[in-house]
Amino acid sequence: MRATFPPEFFRRFDEADDAEFYAEPRLVTHIDDATIAALTDLYREVLPPGGAVLDLMSSWVSHLPPEMSFARIAGLGMNRIELERNPRLTDFVVHDLNATPELPYPDATFDAVLNAVSIQYLTRPVEVYLSVGRVLKPNGLALIATSHRCFPNKAIMAWHASSPEQRAHLIQIYFQLAGGFGPMTHVDRSPVGADPLWVSLARKS
User: Fold this and answer.
1) Which residue has the higher pLDDT, 149 or 109?
2) Among 66, 105, 140, 144, which residue has the least CB neighbours within 10 Å?
3) Distance between CA atoms of residues 86 and 99, nearest Å
4) Strand partners, 93
5) In whole numbers, what is the pLDDT of the chain averaged over residues?
6) Would you place residue 7 in the very low, low, confident or very high pLDDT band (cuts 50, 70, 90)?
7) CA distance 120 to 10
8) pLDDT tens digit string along 22-63?
9) Can you tell me the distance from the alpha carbon of 145 to that of 62, in angstroms, rounded to the nearest whole number?
10) C-beta separation of 12 from 154 below 8 A
């Protein structure tokens, strides 16, 4: 699957072990409050109440609507302290997707898999989203939210070289190569005067 991309596409400025980079907790948010509110509003619109949700590349906050209840909110991330501090998670696992892109969950487990402003750090995204498709229930939703901030030393080179429109197209390619997803929808939910918010959504076909 990597062979479909140019050399250096998934390289990063910092190729040291990701576990070292994420060893210290970062109890901060990575987008503005207004942008977080816009993401929460979108979750409110598209997530099924009472469903099972996987927060991929999770941390200490998931931006889920506080009034919505879910049967399960699983978190998968790189820092145990951050995950332990997340009050919405019903369970979590510390897992490095760049080392092991296969998700540690059974088939057809989740109604939705979320990725909030972290897709740029995946070096094996097609393999990850092949597994996302496996753990989603039929018609389950994959949602990828992006903005313009990142840890520059850990974002892939292709992300640095791409415009927002090109990044949306790149995510579409990830879904297409992973297979098993219907057409992708891309929406701009950027608040005025705050960090931008672009969201890509695709359902398991």
Assistant:
1) 109
2) 66
3) 24
4) 76
5) 93
6) confident
7) 9
8) 777 765 677 899 999 999 999 999 999 999 999 999 999 999
9) 12
10) yes
Q: What is the 3-state secondary structure (H, E, C) of the chain?
A: CHHHCCCCCCCCCCCCCHHHHCCCCCCCCCCCHHHHHHHHHHHHHHCCCCCEEEEEEECCCCCCCCCCCCCEEEEEECCHHHHHHCCCCCEEEECCCCCCCCCCCCCCCEEEEEEECCHHHCCCHHHHHHHHHHHEEEEEEEEEEECCCCCCCCCCHHHHCCCHHHHHHHHHHHHHHHCCECCCEEEECCCCCCCCCEEEEEEEC
Residue 126 exposed, middle or buried by CB count within 10 Å (0-12, 13-18, 19+): buried
pLDDT of residue 1: 45
127 to each of 132, 162, 179, how far by Cα in Å? 9, 21, 10
Q: Which two tokens stand for residue 35?
A: 């942008």
Chain center to CA of 79 = 15
Mean predicted confidence (pLDDT) in 3-27 = 80
- The model's pLDDT over 144-178, given as tens digits with 9 standing for 90+, comes to 999 987 777 889 999 999 999 999 999 999 999 99
Q: Is the pLDDT of residue 137 over 90?
A: yes
CB-based contacts of 110: which residues, under 8 Å, 6+ apart? 51, 52, 53, 54, 72, 74, 135, 136, 137, 140
Taking the model in full, what pTM does it have? 0.93
Domain 2-203 CATH assignment equals 3.40.640.10: no
